[in-house]
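Allow me, if you will, to draw on your knowledge of protein folds for a short while. I have a record of one protein: its chain in single-letter code and its fold written as C-alpha cells. Could you please explain, in whatever detail you think fit, how the C-alpha cells follow from the sequence? The record follows directly beneath this note:
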Amino acid sequence: MPASSSPHPVTGTMSVHPCDSTALAAVGVPDLCPLPPAGGPHTRRALADFTGRLGTHTRRAGDLMDHHVRAWAGFIDTVRSIDDRMADRLRAL
C-alpha cells in the first residue's frame, strides 16, 4: 500500500501507513493490510477481507507448527526407543 500523502486527520502529521508493504512485496510477503482510509465506502468489506486473509495465514502457521511438533515428537520417540534398546542390551551383559 503506498504511503499516505495527506496529513493524518486527527494528529495533522504526515506519516507512512504502518502496513506499507512495498519492500516486503518485493520478496514475496503478502499484503495483509489493504485497508482504505477510515470512513471510506468500502472499509467494512476491506476489513472483512483483511480478517479473512489474516485467519488463513494464522491457520497455515498453525498447521505448520503442528507438523513441526509431530516431527519432533517422532524424533524424540525414536531416540527414546534407541535408548531403551541400548539399556536392555547393557542389562543383558
About this structure: The radius of gyration is 25 Å. Residues 1-33 form one domain. The first helix runs from residue 22 to 26. The chain has two helices and no strands.
